[in-house]
Amino acid sequence: MTTIDFYTHCADPLKIAIRIVAKAWAQHGSVRIVTADDAMTATLDSLLWQWPATGFMPHCRLESALAADTPILVDHAAEHRGPTSVLVNLQPAPPSFFARFERVAEIVGDDAQSVAAGRERWKYYKERGYDLRSHNLGDRA
Length: 141
Hints:
This protein is an alpha/beta fold. The protein is built from three helices and seven strands; from the N terminus they run E-H-E-H-E-E-E-E-H-E. It has a domain at 1-7 and 31-102 and 113-130: DNA polymerase III subunit chi (Rossmann fold). The protein has helices at residues 13-28, 38-50, 112-127; strands at residues 3-10, 31-34, 59-60, 72-75, 86-89, 103-109, 131-136. Strands 3-4-2-5-6-1-7 form a seven-stranded parallel beta sheet, with helices on both faces.
C-alpha cells in the first residue's frame, strides 16, 4: 500500500518540493511532480534548472518526447505514464492516480487555503486506510 508523508507549515512549498524531489530521485530513481496548473508547472520547471547550483536534476514535462527516458516528470496533467516510485503532490486534492505510487509526498503551505486543503487530503487518505506520516517544517530554519 502507498505510504503518504505530509510536509506541513511550508513557507515556500516549491522550495520544499525541489528538496524532496532531489532526495527521492537519489533514493528511488524516479519522481513525478504533479502541480496545480500550467503556471506552477512552468515555475517549477525553471527552478529545477537552477537547483542545485552545482548539480543537475534531469526533468521534463509529461508530454515531452523524452518523458519515457527522463527520471523526473513535472506536469499538472491529471494522468500518469511511467515509473511509479515517488509522487510529489502540489495540487489541492489527491491526484486520481496516487495509489499507483509506492510513496506520496503531500506538501502543505502555511497559508489558510493550503492548510484547509491539506486537512481535506489527510482526511481523504485516512478514511481509506493509508499509512500517513506528518513532518512539521515550520520548526526548521
